Amino acid sequence: MNNYPNPIIGYVPHDIQHNIIGPSGSNIDPCFRTTQRACRAAEKYGRQDDFFEAGELFLEGIFNVVVWDEGDIMLDGQSAKRFIKACKKRGLTPSKSHAKKINIFNKEARYSSRRLLGDINHNRAILLAEP
User: CA–CA separation, 86 vs 31, rounded Å?
Assistant: First the structure.
């Protein structure tokens, strides 16, 4: 077991089968700073009947999607800032240009964790070098 920090970055709306609820007709996996925002997002997407719970999304969970599976998670402003801070604490080098564009008051999941992480191959190498 490693001793690296794995903080909660935010919360994702889940259905009963623990699939992430995103906007209908899209492949977007949204993440929000609070459980209430995740719940409201399911309502906004017209999927309130599918909503089961707001599940925690940890830093490692984002890495699993972005670094290892080559997917993406869309973050609201506060979870995006939290993601950048957690990446730096892990010794990764997120994209400074994308990080500067984050508005912490934005409650919509509009910040790509993939873009925020920046050079995926470089950061993957850092993660692989961890003991």
Answer: 15
> Residues 14, 55, 46, CA angle at the centre, nearest 5°?
30
DSSP 65: I
Both tokens of 39, joined, read 């719940």
CA distance 19 to 41: 14
Q: Angle at CA 105, nearest 5°, toward 120 and 34?
A: 75
Beta-strand (E) ranges in the chain? 8-14, 30-31, 53-58, 74-75, 111-112
DSSP 3-state of 83? helix
Q: Tokens 């309502």 appear where? A: 43
Q: What pLDDT, in 10s, does the model give residues 18-53?
A: 999 999 888 889 999 999 999 999 999 999 999 999
Element at 47 (helix H, strand E): none
* Residues near 26 by beta carbon (within 8 Å), at least 6 away in sequence: none
pLDDT 10s digits, 61-81:
999 999 999 899 999 999 999
- With 0.90 as the threshold, say if the pTM is over it: yes
Token pair in block for residue 130: 């961890």
